[in-house]
Amino acid sequence: MLITVKILKGRECTIQVMPEDTVIEVKAIVERELGIPPQEQRLVYKGRPLSDDQTLTDCNVTQNAKLFLVVKKTSENTERTAESKEPALWKELNTFLTKHYAAKDIPHIIDQFKKDLEKTVQSLSLDDIERIATVNLKNQQDAAATS
Predict the structure, then answer these.
(1) Contact 67, 44 (CB under 8 A)
(2) Which of 40, 51, 80, 88 has minimal CB crowding within 10 Å?
(3) Tell me, what DSSP letter sits at residue 22?
(4) Backbone phi and psi for residue 15, each to the nearest 5 degrees, phi listed first
């Protein structure tokens, strides 16, 4: 039978499965089609998350059903995403540190800086975040008004 798997706010694919296939087997097919590892996948059908050991029949999944795929954030995935969004920061920090520290010490310094930064960000309260957002929004509005 054919079913559609759609990533929330993303791509979708139609895959060929059998009613007796387990959810973990479906996740393996989805990995081949969309490149998302099974451990990062959560499949949802009719508002209910599907358990890896259940078959599609157990979950009442039928021909032409649409399953939604929620991509779970793993710590490795989170680190990869953070690095891809901020490579310029770490490159700039590395450039700065090479002027003042031995090359062998720089990776340790950057790792400690990342840990300290993460700890500081995690300790922010919602009020702190709101204040930061308000100041940044005001600065953007002021910059837009002057240009």
Answers:
(1) yes
(2) 88
(3) B
(4) -125, 155
Q: Report residue 136 as tokens.
A: 């940044």
For the chain, which domains are there?
Answer: 2-72 (3.10.20.90), 76-146 (no CATH)
Place of tokens 């310029």: 88
User: Which residue do the tokens 């990342």 mark?
Assistant: 114
Instruction: Report residue 128 as tokens.
Output: 């702190």
Retrieve residue 98's tokens: 């090479």
pTM of the model: 0.51
From CA 131, how far away is CA 128, in angstroms rounded? 5
Q: pLDDT tens across 73-131, in order?
A: 765 555 555 445 556 887 888 888 888 888 888 889 988 988 998 898 889 888 888 89
Q: Which two tokens stand for residue 106?
A: 């720089």
Q: Which residues lie across from 43 on neighbouring strands?
A: 69
- The separation between CA 73 and the C-alpha centre of its own chain, rounded to angstroms, equals 5
